Amino acid sequence: MSSNAKDLTDLKVQDELLFDGNPTFGSVTEDVSRVVETKPGRMWYVLFGISLSLTLMLFSMVGYLFWEGTGIWGLNNPVGWGWAIVNFVFWVGIGHAGTLISAVLFLLRQRWRTSINRFAEAMTIFAVICALLFPTIHVGRVWLLYWVLPLPNQMEMWPNFRSPLLWDTFAVGTYFTCSLLFWYVGLIPDLATLRDRAKDKLSKMMYGIFSLGWRGGNRQWQHYELAYLVLAGISTPLVLSVHSIVSTDFATSLVPGWHTTIFPPYFVAGAIFSGFAMVMTLALIARKVYNLEHIFTPKVLERMSWVMLLTGSMVGYAYAMEFFIAWYSGNEYERFAFINRAFGPYAWAYWIMITCNVISPQLFWFKKFRTSIPLLFIISIVVNIGMWFERFVIVMTLSRDYLPSAWDYYSPTIYDIGIFIGSFGLFFTLFLLFLRFLPMVAMAEVKSVLPEADPHHGGSH
Amino acid sequence: MGLFKKLPGVIIAEFDSTGSLLHAAEKMSEAGYKKYDCHSPFPIHGMDKAMKLKRSPMGYIIGTMGLIGMSGMVGLTYWTNTYGYSMVISGKPYFSWQAFIPVIFAITILLSAFGAFFGMLALNKLPQLFNPIFNSDAFAKVTNDSFFVSVESHDPMYDEAKVKSFLESIGGKNVEVIKGE
Q: Do A198 and A207 meet the contact criterion of CB atoms below 8 Å apart?
């Protein structure tokens, strides 16, 4: 009995931190559904217009790329992997925070995650869509993309399962599918809420179809909870495996500066770091635009900044360790690669990376920076810039490899830049549609962590 | 009738808190009802025990799917590298399984996820877009902030008057009879 009493006090203390203003089940439904049920403000239309225009730019540039070939990018002979790979790794990395929040923190029973989980998981899916775009268009002859799949064909050829590029296909494909299923399973009860509140015929029908006839009976919840738990469980290793496999694209090659064993853990830490920064950026915008200050509370934001401080420090450690090992290895090429990174033609990018990724998260040691909304917003954007530059710095190692006669400098063309910016357009278009039509906070989950949700609350039992 | 089985009617009663619903569930299972359910906006801790439900077989479904994925992918990498399209790459044996772990792992996870998703839908008999229970206006609150017990008309102990008075006796309010169709 004493353990039970302890649980109860624990629950209360935690929940006071979680949501401001003592919400009830009804007020949670109301607050979250209101966003979807009312017409969006002018701000939404402006943002959507901009994003959609950028998406159209993306599609037209990609169309031109299909017509003309990857020569329209700034690719040259040592740098065969240009911005496309930089952007791929950047977007996949962002996705990882969503999975960490929705799966790992769920298994660790971190109840503060409930308010940001739906949101972060949506971000994962849209980020992975953007990520998948880049290798797809980088193959050049996109109509032969199915060659990466093990399909019987008239040439009797099979893919090389030893290739990290093929591992990517499987890892990222699985990651996308699992994230989508996990997200959708979480959405079912909330879509049922919207179905039951819907006024007009069209939304009744659409939410009705997508909520699959959910009745909220415990005989349904029983299987549902187990499915959710298992999906969280199997998404957890994906947080570690997907970016590890992405890092093997680099690490299994024989390029100095890439051929290192630190890559998998270093990439995973970087992925979570950048992803939390992106969740932070989006959450700060959404809480402002939709007045959800009491759901995305400063406490939640502060905890997110702790995660950024931790992973940012890990990334900083990895940068230092790479340098140390380059020196300690005694390998001339390896040493040159790192001296060249910090002091060569791309030194500007290297120092942007160091400033944004190593120095800026250290500000989170101070409470002022963890609790000030404008400062959090600025740092979260700075970190995202830094993490893009990290991948840029890594890929640009290619520009000076073994043979000085082969050296070259990579300059992006308007298509490199346009397609990258366009991918942000695609990301935000999808995200704004999500905010418009789907509940951005997992209502059923938030309700289940309110004190009233405990059957023993207030001694009614 | 014809192609579709007739869906059973239900009697529903409203409860005001998780505690009272849990209490009602205990009473229902004690009284020996079989075809009843306790509806809530979110899963309630301890409800499976109160309703005396059997353990969900989800684990077996997911485990089987995962094993199918794993063995299928081991088989595919083995066959393609040994017979289908065998090539010596960096002097390794044809079936150098260490290099195949990432794809085997990915497909194991993928099929387990399908098992979890489709297994859950199958066990819950979803999608089932219509159910007579949706004819009740009060029941729409179940996805918001209300709690219900429902008893289906093909329960062996079903008797309209008796069920109604039983639901009222365990604290149910606004008892409502919904016809099957």
A: yes
The pLDDT of residue B73 is 96
CB contact under 8 A, A161 and B80: yes
> Quick one: CA dihedral A92, A95, A99, A105, positive or negative?
positive
| Token pair belonging to B176 | 């409502």
Assess whether the previous peptide bond of B127 is cis (omega < 30° from 0). yes
Residue B172 C-alpha from the chain's centroid: 25
Report the C-alpha gap between A401 and A324 in whole angstroms. Answer: 20
Same domain, B90 and B63: yes
Mean pLDDT of A129-144: 92
- Residue A222 contacts B, CB cutoff 8 Å: yes
pLDDT higher than 70, residue A430: yes
Is it true that the peptide bond before A23 is cis, omega within 30 degrees of 0?
Answer: no
The two tokens of residue A264 are 């998998």
- Residue A224 is nearest to which of B18, B37, B120, comparing CB atoms? B120
Residues of A in contact with B19 (CB under 8 A): 455-458, 460-461
Residues in chain B with pLDDT values less than 70: 1-5
Q: Which residue on chain A is closest to B102 by alpha carbon?
A: A167
Question: Both B14 and B41 in a single domain?
Answer: yes
What ipTM score was computed for the predicted complex, to two decimals? 0.93
> Are B84 and A156 in contact (CB < 8 Å)?
yes
Question: What region, left, alpha or beta, does residue A376 occupy, with left being phi > 0 and alpha being psi -120 to 50 degrees?
Answer: alpha
User: How does DSSP classify residue A293?
Assistant: T
Interaxial angle between packed helices A83-99 and A373-396, expressed in degrees from 0 to 180 and rounded to the nearest 10: 140
Question: Which pLDDT band, with edges at 50, 70 and 90, does A459 fall under?
Answer: low
Contact A213 B131 (CB under 8 A): yes
**Cβ distance A250 to A263 under 8 Å?**
yes
Full domain range(s) for residue B47: 10-54+125-178
Which residues of chain A does B88 touch, with a Cβ-Cβ cutoff of 8 Å?
A: none
pLDDT of residue A3: 38
Distance CA A458, CA A220 (A): 27
Identify whether residues B107 and B136 lie together within a single domain. no
* Total domains, chain B: 2
Cβ contact B84–A158 (<8 Å): yes
Over the stretch A326-372, which tens digit does the pLDDT of each residue have? Answer: 999 999 999 999 999 999 999 999 999 999 999 999 999 999 999 89
Answer yes or no: are the C-beta atoms of B153 and B10 closer than 8 Å.
yes
Residues 306-365 of A with CB under 8 A from B: none
In this structure, the answer to whether residues B110 and B147 fall within a common structural domain is: no
Residues within 8 A of B (CB atoms), A 228-287 only: 230-231, 234, 237-238, 241, 245, 248
Check if the beta carbon of residue B20 is closer than 8 Å to that of residue A194: no
Determine, yes or no, domain membership for B1. no
Question: According to the model, what pLDDT value does residue B155 have?
Answer: 86
Residue B40 domain flag: yes
Mean pLDDT of A362-390: 93
Domain boundary among B82, B97, B123: B123
Q: What is the pLDDT of residues A150-205, one digit of tens each?
A: 998 888 889 989 999 999 999 999 999 999 999 999 999 999 999 999 999 999 99
B48 plus B134 within the same structural domain: yes
Residue B4 is assigned to a structural domain of this protein? no
Cα A338 → chain centroid: 28
Mark whether B50 and B62 lie in a shared domain.
no
